Amino acid sequence: MKERLINVLKWFLMILGVIFLIQFLIGLGIIFGLVGFANADLDFINTDKRLKPIQPIIDYVEEYKEENGKYPDKLGDIKLKKDLDYKYEVTKDGNCYTITVKSKKENMTKQYQYCSMDKDNSTSKSESYVEYSNN
Question: DSSP class of residue 83?
């Protein structure tokens, strides 16, 4: 009887150990999954944050188009951070503009392009953002 009780107890403890090991592995998987998701570079979420330094230019250009029906050929005095140099270009047809910003502090160049066309009964819009190092 004593031997049978020890055998049942041994199997019970082994089953508990296996269940604990499975729970531990599942817990580790969840933790690594959450850490991996937190470190993921999700550009579609961070785009607005990255455009923040050039947002005054974008706002001015869009307001100008609403008032005049086309994008401005040249920009007036728009103040950005002191370490940013910007270049504004508009296409010949006036449907697209490009803003290139160089940061002296971060040694980075950011380029934003936006196109908007309204013809007859159709509207087309496209937006592009590129960021690269000056090294």
Answer: T
For the chain, counts of helices (H) and of strands (E): 3, 4
Please list, in sequence order, all residues whose beta carbon lies within 8 angstroms of the beta carbon of residue 101, skipping any fewer than 6 positions away: 53, 54, 80, 84, 85, 86, 87, 109, 110, 111, 112
Rounded to an integer, what distance in angstroms lies between the CA atom of residue 61 and that of residue 112? Answer: 13
State the DSSP H helix or E strand holding residue 78, giving kind and residue range, or none if neither.
none
Please, which residues have CB within 8 angstroms of residue 54's CB and are 6 or more apart in sequence? 80, 86, 99, 101, 110, 112
* pLDDT tens digits, 8-62: 999 999 999 999 999 999 999 999 888 887 776 555 555 567 777 778 888 888 8
Q: What angle do CA 134, 111, 83 make, to 5 degrees?
A: 60
- All residues at 6 or more sequence positions from 16 whose CB lies less than 8 Å from its CB, including other chains: none
pTM: predicted TM-score of the whole model, two decimal places: 0.59
